[in-house]
Structures are given as C-alpha cells and as structure tokens.
Amino acid sequence: MDNEVMSWEKLYSKGPFFNLESPHEEVEFLHELFKKNNVETILDLGCGDGRHLYYFSKLGYRIYGLDNARTGLCLAQERLAQVGLATELVCADMTAIPWHDEFFGAVIVIQVIYHNPIEGIRRTIEEIHRVLKPGGWLFVTVSTCKPLGPMRYYSGVEIEPGTMVMDEGPDKGVPHHFFTMPELLDELSRFALIDLRWDSYSGACLLFRRR
C-alpha cells in the first residue's frame, strides 16, 4: 500500500469525513442540468465516504463510486445502507477506471483529480474521456487554479513543478498538484468547456462536455 492510500485509510479509520447532508454547493445546479439533459448514469470518481453517492442516489440516478481507500468505501456502503440506498462501489485507482467505454452520462470529480503527479492526472483524464458517452458531462473542482503562489502555504516536498507531497496534517503523504488556469484548460482540452465558476472556498468548478 503506497503512502497516499495509507493516508486516506488512516483518515477514514477515524470515521466519516463528510456529513451526508452536506454535499458540494454546486450539486443542485448539476442535478438540474442532468435532469434537463436526461442523464441517468453518473460516476463519482474519488467518492470517499459517500456524500455525493447519497445525494444523487436519493434523486433516482444510477450513481457508481470509485475510490482507492477501501475504508472510505466501507463507510459509504454502510451509510447508504442505513438509509435504504445502495450502489456499485469499486476500490481502484482513478488512473484505471474499471468500466467499459462510453458507460456514463456524467462523471463528477470533486476535490480529487489533483491528488496525483501530472502524469497520473493525464492518465485519469484519458480514462474519464474513455468512459464518458459522447456529449457526456464532466464536472471537476480543484482547490486553486491560481499560479503556484498558494504552495507557500503548504508544508511538504515538491516532487515536480507544481506538485507537492504533504508532510503534515490530514493530507500527509498525499500529492497535490497546483494548477494554473491555462495548464488546467490545456490538460482538459479534449473536452469542451461549458461553465466556470468559483465556490465559496475559492475553489474552481468547471463543467465540460465530451466532444
């Protein structure tokens, strides 16, 4: 087990990290969008302990979850079962998504995609493109799209330009890639950008469609 997975396992071993009733603030917008465009199947990439699985499941979507932390997935399964919901959960790395081509109508990646060196991020993007249906929706959030200045607020080791592995706090051992906006849009250029907004935590929220 690598350091990143161990970090997430340790985090989830303490219990749920997120309240099921506190999804990301943009999910209502996504629900309206998905409903209008007849989206039925959603992949929550990096689903953790299940807050977005819960939100979309109770609205009737077929939502699937992937995470590399088995403890987080167990929490998600238990929490969904407690409210009479269930979904397919897979323990895997996001660089190798185990569903067939063009399976999903939408993929959501909330505060997850940047937890990799850049090559891992690129493989993840390729996998997302593969499993999305043509015209499918991709919703991505990242902590910052500002130039690399925010890295000075973190404690860790820079392993490549723009990527730091944390050496303290709950994210100890976890890589964080700090995008600039031009870099992020370039990496996602296989998708058409539909909307860009900022959440209340100054995180960038980007909506794309598969070309």
Gross geometry? globular
What is the H/E order? Answer: HHEHEHEEHEEEEHEE
Share in β-strands: 25-35%
Q: CATH top level? A: Alpha Beta
Measure the end-to-end span. Answer: 36 Å
CATH architecture: 3-Layer(aba) Sandwich
Count of alpha and pi helical runs: 6
In order across it, which strands form the biggest sheet?
3-2-1-4-5-10-9
- Secondary structure: number of strands: 10
Largest sheet: 7 strands, mixed
- Please mark out the parts with pLDDT under 50 across 5 or more consecutive residues, or reply none: none
What is the radius of gyration?
A: 16 Å
For the record, the count of structural domains works out to 1
The overall pLDDT average reads: 91
Structural class: alpha/beta
Instruction: Specify the CATH homologous superfamily.
Output: Vaccinia Virus protein VP39
Assign a percent range to the helix content. 25-40%
In short:
The chain has 6 helices and 10 strands, in the order H-H-E-H-E-H-E-E-H-E-E-E-E-H-E-E.
Written description of the protein model:
There is one protein chain. The protein has helices at 3-12, 27-36, 51-58, 70-82, 118-131, 181-187; strands at 41-45, 62-67, 89-91, 104-110, 132-142, 156-160, 163-166, 175-177, 191-198, 204-210. It has 211 residues and is α/β, with parallel strands linked by helices. The chain has a single domain (1-9, 40-161, 194-211), classed as Vaccinia Virus protein VP39 (Rossmann fold, 3-Layer(aba) Sandwich), CATH 3.40.50.150. The strands form 2 sheets. Strands 3-2-1-4-5-10-9 form a 7-stranded mixed sheet. A 3-stranded antiparallel sheet has the order 6-7-8, with no helix packed on it. The radius of gyration is 16 Å and the shape is globular. The model has no long low-confidence stretch (mean pLDDT 91).
